[in-house]
Amino acid sequence: MKKPPVELRDITFAYGAGELRRVVLREVDLSIAPGEIVLLTGPSGSGKTTLLTLIGALRAMQQGTARVLGQELAGASEAERVRLRRRIGFIFQNHNLLGFLTARQNVAMSMELDGGMTEAQRLRRAGEMLDAVGLSGHAEKPPAQLSGGQRQRVAVARALAGDPGLILADEPTAALDKVSGQEVVHLLRDLARGRGVPILLVTHDPRILDIADRIVAMEDGRIVQAETATAG
Amino acid sequence: MNEIAALPKLLPWAPERNGGAPPETPAAAKPSPGLADLVLLPLRLAWRQLRAEKSRLLAAMAGVMFACVLVFMQLGFRGALFDSATNLLGAMRADIFLVHPMTDASFRPEPLPRARAFQALADPDVEIAVPIYLSQSTWRNPETGRRRAVQLIGLDAGAGAVTFPGLEGIAEALKRPDTVAFDSRSRPEFGPIGQLFAERGAFDVQLGTRRVELVGIVEIGPSFGADGNVVMSETNFQRITQRAASNTDLVALKLREGADPAAVRGRLRALLPGDVEIMTHAELVAHERAYWENGTPIGFIFVFGSLMGLVVGMVIVYQILFSDIASHIAEYATLKAMGYSNFYLTRVVMGSAMILAVIGFIPGFGLSWFLYDLVGKATFLPLHMQPERALTVFLMIFSMCAIAGIFAVRKLRDANPADMF
Ligand SMILES: Nc1ncnc2c1ncn2[C@@H]1O[C@H](COP(=O)(O)OP(=O)(O)OP(=O)(O)O)[C@@H](O)[C@H]1O
Ligand SMILES: [Mg+2]
After folding, report:
1. What are the pLDDT digits (tens) for B302-320?
2. pTM, full prediction
3. Residues 6+ positions from A66 with CB-CB distance below 8 Å
4. Which of A15, A203, A205 to mutate to test the pocket of ligand 1 (most atoms within 8 A of CB)?
């Protein structure tokens, strides 16, 4: 049995200090199994994004232990966190593509920190990823010439191109209409499943709950319920 | 309904191909990039970012170019003025010179007793001693009739202690009363004297209040203190200036063949009183140049001008780099989330700065070269594009951009990947 890619124990996190200190995560335990797709839901302000940024090594931990892709995050140095981020694929609410690069170059950016690849390999791989998300004819276009759904698909291709061990997504469909939102998450699910990459996806969108293996709900900084999805 | 069939085609890693077993995912750490990639990839990213915003790029180029041209012109003028400041002394060649210790510049010499020249002859190695008289008068342009201040140089041309380009052939002619030789490199306001002399030979000109005969042409060049030069014999100098012969301004010594100038100098120092200083030709020229460089604010003016150009250029480059980061802050934060380190992004910003330095310097260099030519012709200043100067200016521009980059890099701290969600 492989080790779980994400294993959180007793995570407590607060913003601010002194009188302004506000605890937003309380004793959170969460594990994600290899290849598992977990959806995180809950009311606004319940701490979902904060949890995601902790797992993604974008914030320094405060209390508890978190093992992500074999890296212990409690007490990890900035350099260790930067290195871990290279092995995680992020998908944001906004696509956050670099406007001055083409779709292909944007996808290739996720591989430029990988010394094992040549420029030609990176571009070929980026092209394959764009084919995989159904953007074969759009590889040389800048983001400004793509629709919102297409841009988010480029972001999916970028998140997956670097062979990540984990995908973290925060409301990837929030800026999209129903149809393109569903297209994007289904693509994401299919690609991740095919490669055995686990996904932790924060969403408010009830229309995409069907992609989940498991749905975790948060409320006021705590995990209140975890249900195993039957859809799939 | 969420079957893979929804995809445009089967992917290489689709579960259908390998029976549903997830392939080994290489989630382990990857080899880090080579040195070339660590330098060139950020540079390429910087260039792509700069290139995307044409008007901003042009503004940055113009800013660097402006700084570049300004510095080139300032340094050019500075060099040209200091070079020409010493034209007169530079053209006068002799083994050793005696000057009054209080003489700072040749246009304002402190007189020394003429007797020092003959005292110097007491040294067995000093063969000839020639007193040189310096004064100013006016020259009437033979074509327009306008008068202009001119430098007079009186010396015994036939003695052979001092050589000017062109002086040798006319030494005999200068011995006649009321004859002079004119410096053909003087400013054109004195009239086309060289050309007139070549056409009609000797002719009469007015120097001060006297009519004198122009019998030859020498080459010296205008300097700070003098727009033009007239050379004549000692006797003629005294007739024209009405000056007593007991004091002179400079003494040129010619040494015997094989004499050691350093030894002669030491002996002369012991022999002569404290009202003379003993200098070689190079020292005399350096002394004059030092006066203009250090004794006047002229040097400072040009340094100040260059600095202003660099400061303005730096502010422009900083503004451009800063707004480039500020308008791409979300992208920079995304890159940080993707695992790009602060140092990597710093290299991108510094790469932009370096690119701006190079693409601003090249047209700036070309334009400065053109302006050197243009302005040099208009002002008769020796403005030349020298390789060392080009290198100096490039290093200045490069540092200017680097400093702007270092300031702009601080803006990168605002790119916080945790804010991206
Ligand atoms: N950078 C921050 N500094 C201080 N407080 C913050 C910061 N980010 C979030 N918070 C607070 O922490 C709490 C949890 O925020 P978080 O963004 O994790 O919630 P969320 O579950 O993602 O909400 P949403 O569904 O609206 O995105 C909120 O009350 C929020 O105001
Ligand atoms: Mg949120």
Report:
1. 889 899 999 999 999 999 9
2. 0.78
3. A6, A7, A8, A9, A11, A54, A55, A72, A73, A74
4. A15
